Amino acid sequence: MVACPPYPFSAVVGTTDLGLALLLNAVSPAIGGVLVRGEKGTAKSTMVRALAALLPDVTTVAGCRFGCDPAAPDAECPDGPHDPAGPVRRRPSALVELPVGATEDRLVGALDLQRALTEGVKAYEPGLLAAAHRGLLYVDEVNLLPDHLVDLLLDAAAMGRAYVERDGVSVRHAARFLLVGTMNPEEGELRPQLLDRFGLAVDVTAPRDVSQRTLVVARRLAYDADPAGFARSFEAAETELAAHIDGARRRLPSVVLPDRELRRIAGVCAAFGVDGMRADIVVARTALALAAWYDRPAVTEADVADAARLALPHRRRRDPFDAPGLDEDALDQALRDAAPPPDGDDDHDPEPDPDPGGGAPPPPSELDSQSGAGEAPSEQRASPADPAFRARLLSVPGAGTGARAGRRSAAYTRGGRVVGARRPQAGLTSVHVPATILAAAPYQRDRGRTDRLVLVPEDLRAAVHKGREANLVLFVVDASGSMAARQRIRAVKGAVLSLLRDAYQRRDKVGLVTFRGAGATVALPPTTSHEIGAVRLRELPTGGRTPLAAGLRCAATVLAAEARRDPYRRPLLILVTDGRATAGPDPVTVAPLLSGIATVVVDCESGPVRLGLAGRLAAALAGRLLRLDQLSVDGLRAVATQRAA
Ligand SMILES: [Zn+2]
Fold first, then answer.
1. Which of 267, 446, 448, 451 is the most buried (most CB within 10 A)?
2. Which helix (H) or strand (E) holds 522?
3. pLDDT score at 131
4. For the whole model, what pTM was predicted?
């Protein structure tokens, strides 16, 4: 297959903020990368891939798998030490894409523990972090990557080094790369503590302007028809852009950050309510890169404002269930409030340049107005929820595989408590030392032991760890009239919101099935977007008859589909009902559809006369029965106190 030339960076229409954020990181990788948020079909991937082609070539030590710079080789390079006079190699800057489903070994590299222990050699196969050194690491759908991989990735990006350790055998090497992650917020948010570790964040929307949309399509068709010819027509612009990046890189060290602007940065970060000091540093680095980009000798007020717009919005302290995104008004206010008081020390500030340089992209304009549709009149029948509480831990019985890291159910995991030893299956990742010695002990005389233990591969025993995994928590909620009429839905909504928040903290996937009137609805297909679940639940309309069997049947369908999609994630079904069915068949007759599924039935029945139908259903589902007030940690404590008194 003949490789197509990449779509040229300068041919991408619109997405000005994204272009600027990428170019600034190319000028100053210390900014810490870019997180690109936007729906599908917004040219985010095209632009990221196009950037790689603009990065300057790199010179490496020939034969080094870790991309060492001959002028400054990595002292810890596993392929080193290198001969300073040895051959060198020049190659384009790397573009490494992290594939979906990549493992930890693939990312950080694989260490062969067996050879390390029995042969005494560090056999190390470099991972993608090594390949990305001095280039660009692109992670599409970073929000769908398992948390432990995101942590590893961001740690390496922050330290500029990758580190692998298995039982005291460790390898480290340089890994400095420009990190770009993309995500579609509709498919789940990134946890806030990971969000703010990206230097800059940009929201990208498809252009709404008709002439822009026309241009996007026309260019795309021209590219598809003749990629090489299309690339040629942008060659001059691309060469100029690459030269501009190179020039800005060289100007960067001499750009000055005046005290006055440094104070403005501190002021805006404080006023905007960000955690820690990292934000201030990123804004300062970005402002410096902006000044270098526009060929200014010193950072100006406009540079600080533009840097703040790219570096701050995703760092604002917020509740997990607040809608994420940019708060432009708050940022404008913070920028106005942060104007430093006039004083006499700033005479050395250079004049701000009123006209930023010629061929360079314009400074970021305001983002397309955020769809401020927050106040849409919601369905009037949706009733409010009681305040959320701290939920008790509900878990899946038994032990899972731990393939989905989290904090809910017991599972065999890579880390965590050591609970036993076994013969290693595939790839030894953690040695159980006492068991290994015990296995080797009987053969020491036969192996001619003199002063130290003689180990052979067959002796090695792997440690078995137990930790916790994340699950799929599927809520099945009765939204019929009987719930609404008695004002119970407020309490039910409060309880389910509490469990939803708990699921967020335990890193579960969640789904929501509701039933009322004629049938059941999948209000939220299984997702890690807990905040969407909260919105759906708050807006949940209620009323009508109670087709409980339809709700169970719908849940069984959702779980079956999810078992195919994500087979290692164990489900937990939480059925919120009073057990009464006023439409469709007796729910007990459909219970076998859910056999084998860990189930909790939350009994919402209240009032002086109780039928106990939820208990009957829980028995049919082989599930656990809890009352609404038994879901909260505080409720449990209150019951315990009453009993003790
Ligand atoms: Zn090297």
1. 267
2. strand 519-527
3. 94
4. 0.62
